[in-house]
């Protein structure tokens, strides 16, 4: 981490809000001081920051985070300008300029949008500017918005080909269960997803943050599967995290760079149906190198055509992966449960193919939610 040329730092609402739920300007300045020093040492930093909604509460006379989308969007709209004004001031005190980039999930994966976002981020970095990124809350609809910035940060890390990502929050690192539960312990290092199979997380953390640890682990999974290591820690540890001292939880990169098409499949494509897998097929798919064969399918839902995105679910309906179906929905009941050899003999050579080929499949297994 100490030598990483380009780092994406994501700071959550929980680290930027005071006890009254409003923006904590001192916390923001403390963070900026550390990032500014990193910048001065010749490294590039992209800051993904939450806090727009928090910053909008005071001016709108609201006392807590709105639960309805329209009011949350209004708060974000009022707060985003204020948030960026605070960052502009804080970085200017160190002689650094910032540039605001507001993105939706689609912008980070759809080709035309992706190229645009990539170009402007690159240019800002070339010009020595610190990009300050947030989700475009005011326009993102409920259907497509992330709502949390964790996954957005991972997609931005992919977009800028970051060497590492730092997720800053209000806990020291990943614990083996919700930290409020007595006896839970912090995990210092994660080498593969199997290391955290036993970990329990909540989907909602602090009163101001969204997503809790669940979305952070999804973010970690996108980044590490794209070859980007991650440090997850408390925001007061940002210096240590950037220096590479052992703070928080360090997640090793597990894969090589994922293609944008696979990111699209995992995070932006709208599924047209579902394939229900038996336990053996779930194990094979999660193993990471197998295609989904007709023999492992026990059910099909929805009306999709071949090449449409579908969800692969286990017998309890949990989504384990997403992929592009090689068959129309109507054809699958006639293939289910049969080996490719039997299908070839009965129906012809074209029927010995997988229903979802490995190259058209991404794992989206979520950690255990309590
Ligand atoms: N296994 C776990 N390890 C660490 N934190 C967890 C775990 N499960 C749930 N959490 C909760 O996740 C919270 C952080 O999520 P969140 O409030 O969304 O933060 P942020 O605003 O920084 O994105 C922590 O305060 C913690 O209570
Ligand atoms: N875009 C929103 C961020 C939403 C949010 O709370 O995210 P996070 O703190 O990362 O869980 C905002 O700026 O308020």
TrEMBL record:
Pfam families: AA_kinase, PUA. Its EC number is 2.7.2.11. It comes from the Bacteria. The keyword Transferase applies. Pathway: Amino-acid biosynthesis; L-proline biosynthesis; L-glutamate 5-semialdehyde from L-glutamate: step 1/2. It catalyses: L-glutamate + ATP = L-glutamyl 5-phosphate + ADP. One of its GO terms (cellular component) is cytosol. Residues 273-356 form the PUA domain. It is found in: Cytoplasm. This is Glutamate 5-kinase. It comes from Sanguibacter inulinus.
């Amino acid at each position: 981490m100490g030598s990483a040329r380009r780092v994406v730092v994501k700071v959550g609402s929980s680290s930027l809000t005071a006890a009254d739920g409003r923006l904590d300007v001192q916390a923001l300045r403390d963070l900026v001081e550390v990032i500014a020093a990193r910048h001065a040492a010749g490294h590039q930093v992209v800051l993904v920051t939450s806090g727009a909604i928090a910053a909008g509460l005071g001016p709108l006379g609201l006392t807590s985070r709105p639960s309805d989308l329209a009011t949350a969007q209004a708060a974000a709209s009022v707060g985003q300008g204020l948030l960026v004004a605070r960052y502009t001031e804080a970085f200017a005190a160190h002689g650094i300029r910032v540039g605001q980039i507001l993105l939706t999930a689609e912008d980070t994966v759809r080709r035309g949008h992706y190229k645009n976002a990539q170009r402007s981020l690159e240019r800002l970095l070339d010009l020595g500017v610190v990009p300050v990124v947030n989700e475009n809350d005011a326009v993102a609809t409920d259907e497509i918005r992330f709502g949390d910035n964790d996954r957005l940060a991972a997609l931005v890390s992919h977009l800028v080909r970051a060497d590492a990502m730092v997720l800053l929050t209000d806990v020291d690192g990943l614990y083996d269960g919700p930290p409020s539960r007595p006896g839970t312990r912090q995990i210092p290092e994660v080498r593969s997803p199997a290391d955290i199979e036993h970990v329990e997380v909540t989907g909602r953390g602090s009163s101001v943050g969204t997503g809790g640890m669940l979305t952070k682990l999804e973010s970690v999974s996108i980044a590490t599967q794209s070859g980007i290591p991650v440090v997850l820690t408390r925001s007061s540890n940002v210096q240590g995290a950037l220096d590479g001292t052992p703070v928080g939880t360090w997640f090793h990169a597990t894969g090589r760079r994922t293609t944008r098409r696979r990111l699209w499949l995992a995070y932006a494509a709208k599924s047209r149906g579902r394939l229900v897998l038996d336990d053996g097929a779930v194990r094979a798919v999660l193993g990471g190198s197998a295609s989904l064969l007709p023999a492992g399918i026990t059910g099909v839902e929805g009306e999709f055509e071949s090449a449409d995105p579908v969800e692969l679910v286990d017998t309890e309906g949990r989504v384990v992966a997403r992929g592009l179906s090689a068959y129309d929905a109507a054809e699958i009941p006639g293939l289910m449960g049969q080996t490719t050899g039997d299908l070839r003999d009965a129906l012809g050579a074209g029927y010995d193919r997988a229903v979802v080929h490995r190259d058209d499949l991404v794992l989206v297994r979520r950690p255990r939610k309590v």
